[in-house]
What we know:
The chain is flat. It is an all-alpha fold. Helix 3 crosses helix 4. The longest helix has 26 residues, at about 45-70. The chain has helices at about 10-20, 25-30, 35-45, 45-70, 75-85, 90, 100-120, 125-140, 145-150.
Amino acid sequence: METHLFTEEKKREFCLMISIGCDQETAGKYLGCTPRKLQEALKLDSQFARQLARAEATPEFNHMRNLHNAAKDEKHWRVSVWWLERCASDRYARRNPEAISPAQLRQVIKELGEAIVGEIASPDDRRRLLTRLAEIAQGIEGDEQVAALALEHESTPHE
């Protein structure tokens, strides 16, 4: 579909499909629109882009409202469990019993840093190891807090 053929009716139909849960690919195929043509139309029409963004949020909002309403009835307690496991997964999701939590990982990184400071006499070696530990820690989901823990002992003198 040509960008200039992306009529107001097609835009409304596209947003409606998205608002009920279709993805852009499916809605585009249904309307005969390529992803490239959709992107062009969105660049040319900021109002359409805003309408599409709202349409994309609508299914999640509707499902969350349904969950919220169902959870008001105590016999639907599983709705609350489902929500907590998905939306507050760091605290409520089921974990592999052998997996470590982010808090446990931060503690391990901190203790490794302390061990490096306590055991490595050479300031250059100590700095190199702490820097490498920080790089490894930062690679774990880009966790800046974990990386900072690794480097917090860098200026500490050898004990």
